[in-house]
From TrEMBL:
<dbReference type="GO" id="GO:0030513">
    <property type="term" value="P:positive regulation of BMP signaling pathway"/>
</dbReference>
<keyword id="KW-0732">Signal</keyword>
<dbReference type="Pfam" id="PF00094">
    <property type="entry name" value="VWD"/>
</dbReference>
<dbReference type="InterPro" id="IPR052424">
    <property type="entry name" value="Kielin_Chordin-BMP_Reg"/>
</dbReference>
<dbReference type="InterPro" id="IPR025615">
    <property type="entry name" value="TILa_dom"/>
</dbReference>
<dbReference type="GO" id="GO:0005576">
    <property type="term" value="C:extracellular region"/>
</dbReference>
<dbReference type="InterPro" id="IPR001846">
    <property type="entry name" value="VWF_type-D"/>
</dbReference>
<dbReference type="Pfam" id="PF12714">
    <property type="entry name" value="TILa"/>
</dbReference>
<keyword id="KW-0964">Secreted</keyword>
<protein>
    <recommendedName>
        <fullName>VWFD domain-containing protein</fullName>
    </recommendedName>
</protein>
<feature type="domain" description="VWFD">
    <location>
        <begin position="71"/>
        <end position="160"/>
    </location>
</feature>
Length: 160
């Protein structure tokens, strides 16, 4: 049994300090995330600590190291770039640019990623060849690339 579900014996969960954990679940039993435990038939624990840009907190009823915050940037229009520090730039280049990428991730649990934007000239509303728009946006994370194309609304390309 795993919780209230019948499963093969090698998929059974674990009980640790009176709490039940699913098979494969990683958990932090102390309030400072100084001990990381994993349930793989038996509970195995090791010393741990949250990374430089993380804090120990409860999320979905499970304590874990969570990012200190989130960053938001956006690209819109012809194109306007709003950066993580909320600065806006209007940039009319027609190349492929890295809009955002992970950096200084060593020693953290944060996942590396890249967001690239390919711009092209846009004549639709203007005869001004200096105006450009985003032709596509490519997001690479976890070894997968997801591509959004301007002229293909509602569709994404996924490359492994």
């Amino acid at each position: 049994m795993s919780g209230d579900e019948c499963v093969p014996a090698n998929q059974c969960g674990c009980t640790y300090e009176g709490k039940y954990y699913q098979h494969g679940q990683v958990f932090y039993p102390d309030a400072l995330c100084q001990k990381e435990c994993a349930c793989n038939g038996t509970v195995q624990c090791k010393q741990s600590s949250c990374g430089l840009y993380e804090k120990c907190e409860m999320k979905n009823y499970v304590r874990s190291c969570q990012p200190l915050g989130k960053g938001v940037c956006s690209i819109y229009g012809d194109p306007h770039y709003n950066t993580f520090d909320n600065t806006t730039y209007d940039f009319q280049g027609t190349c492929t640019y890295v809009a955002a990428e992970g950096c200084h991730l060593s020693g953290t649990r944060l996942t590396d990623f890249t967001v690239a934007v390919e711009n092209e000239k846009w004549y639709r509303m203007s005869d001004n060849p200096k105006v450009s728009v985003a032709k596509l946006v490519a997001v690479e994370v976890y070894g997968t690339i997801v591509i959004l194309r301007r002229n293909e609304a509602g569709m994404v390309w996924v490359c492994h």
